[in-house]
């Protein structure tokens, strides 16, 4: 079962009570894919009410796409507990704030992660993270300083894409590629596109 929600805000939208879009998801016991996108999001007020616990999400969820929700990064800990989540796509301030801390026990089955148009600065990780990750995509995260070193050692990694991020993030991608080669993962596909230095690199 799939569920998609799209809300378009007027440019002059005024603050109102957050929409409780997530409250009844738990009733959809066969839900595997959930998408919630806020068009023309504002950072001035919360449009969608924050999730308060893991219990509001069906354990059957395998794919989540969020855009414009503006959740604080600490709420990511709730999604990180979903036992069957394999794909997570975050676009346009789905989460906001300068720091995201990722731990070993987070996202134990995640295979695909997309970060696009996020204001994150520090992406921190401790221990062996995302051990089943196959594809990592980072696009237009202009403030991000680097991809955490824990990504370097993921032996399941098949694809890495970095588009229009800081040169230090590009350096992170090249560092990951080098480490993966040292781990005999010669099949890793790396795509780097950057207008910071007006050139495109493809491996």
Automatic annotation (TrEMBL):
InterPro entries assigned: LRR_dom_sf
Lineage: superkingdom: Eukaryota
Name this polypeptide is given: Uncharacterized protein
């Amino acid at each position: 079962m799939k569920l998609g929600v799209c809300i378009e805000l007027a440019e002059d939208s005024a603050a109102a009570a957050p929409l409780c879009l997530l409250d009844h998801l738990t009733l959809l016991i066969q839900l595997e894919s959930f998408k919630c996108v806020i068009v023309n999001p504002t950072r001035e007020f919360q449009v969608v009410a924050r999730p308060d616990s893991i219990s509001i999400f069906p354990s059957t969820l395998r794919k989540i796409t969020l855009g414009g929700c503006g959740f604080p990064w600490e709420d990511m800990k709730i999604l990180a507990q979903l036992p069957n989540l394999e794909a997570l796509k975050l676009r346009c301030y789905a989460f906001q704030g300068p720091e995201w801390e990722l731990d070993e026990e987070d996202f134990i089955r995640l295979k695909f992660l997309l970060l696009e148009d996020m204001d994150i600065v520090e992406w921190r990780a401790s221990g062996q993270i995302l051990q089943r990750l196959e594809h990592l995509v980072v696009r237009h995260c202009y403030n991000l300083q680097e991809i955490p070193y824990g990504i370097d050692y993921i032996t399941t990694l098949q694809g890495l894409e970095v588009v229009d991020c800081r040169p230090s993030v590009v350096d992170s991608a090249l560092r990951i590629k080098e480490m993966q080669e040292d781990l005999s993962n010669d099949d890793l596909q790396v795509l780097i596109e950057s207008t910071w230095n007006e050139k495109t690199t493809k491996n």
